TrEMBL record:
Alphabetical keyword list: FAD, Flavoprotein, Nucleotide-binding, Oxidoreductase, Proline metabolism
Lineage: Bacteria, Bacillati, Actinomycetota, Actinomycetes, Kitasatosporales
Domain of life: Bacteria
Organism the protein comes from: Streptomyces lunaelactis
Name of this chain's protein: proline dehydrogenase
This enzyme's EC code(s): 1.5.5.2
Gene3D superfamilies per UniProt: 3.20.20.220
Signal peptide as annotated in the record: none
Pathway participation: Amino-acid degradation; L-proline degradation into L-glutamate; L-glutamate from L-proline: step 1/2
Amino acid sequence: MLGPVILAASRSDKMRRFVSAAPGTRQVVSRFIAGETVEQVVPVVKETIDKGLEVTLDVVGEDITTREQAYAARDAYMELIEYLEDLGLGTKAEMSVKLSMFGQSLEGGHELALANIRPVVEAAASIGTTVTLDAEDHTTLDSMFAIHEELRKDFPQTGCVIQAYLFRTEEDAGRLAAAGSRVRIVKGAYKEPAAVAYQHKAEIDKAYVRILKILMEGDGYPMIGSHDPRLIAVTQELARRAGRKLDEYEFQMLYGIRSDEHVRLAAEGHRMRVYTAYGTDWYGYFMRRLAEKPANLLFFLRSMITK
Ligand code: FAD
């Protein structure tokens, strides 16, 4: 019940100001956000990789309102790539981006986002790593898939995300499960209407399994973004049935969530990538994490009271 309310609040400027100024917020935010600057996140990346894990880095931000902000987002990723180049980690550290932060939601946004993301994808390729396009709300997806297709002509390793809660996704998965493609499957984190998305957990989980099957039986590289123990077990079984080796798919989880499981799966020989978000514009990302688990909200409220 609380999830949709928190997701609605994630789009409110008033709530953004309230939450950002609340006592105790920083402490709770730091559970999910690995730092505010690239200098702060680099040691986290090193520590993660030293544990036998891999990372995908997300500079937090979305829903921008000016072209200058879109250019600043591109520059932030270019700065990150310079740091990654010095670390020489190749695909052990890739990047995740939200196209809305690259200007997609502004006027002429599709062309702007494409022009803005291209140099980032190109720079990533030049240091031996890659970029995955995150999935945002359903109104943005046709544009995201078109940009993904365009980028793949020159950079076929560019990944994208599909969301199990959307009715359209089985069809998208069928199209994307082709040789060379890298596709992350997640349940979906936005507030979506019943006209386009399943609303109940059981339906979403069933759809997730159907889509997982399509990806596992296809020729692409599936990236399983979930902390759900049942789906992890189903993934292992479907991969076995499809005859996939351990390096022919990977698990992905979020920084700060089920960290012991990251290490456990890696120790079993799985490739495990930790989605590591950093930056100052953490509000939308943080609110989605609260919405996913009501206990996080209680923890947050308690930290406000005890401050
Ligand atoms: P759930 O059933 O929600 O959770 C299973 C268990 O995991 C819970 O019981 C709990 O123990 C733990 N857990 C889950 N979430 C939390 C949390 N916030 N705090 C504490 N414990 C938690 N969504 C998008 O819409 N677009 C994207 O591009 C996108 N990228 C993602 C990338 C990665 C690597 C991951 C892991 C998720 C991404 N998501 C994205 C979010 C995703 O859609 C889900 O909202 C999120 O993963 C929670 O779903 P779940 O599969 O973990 O299952």
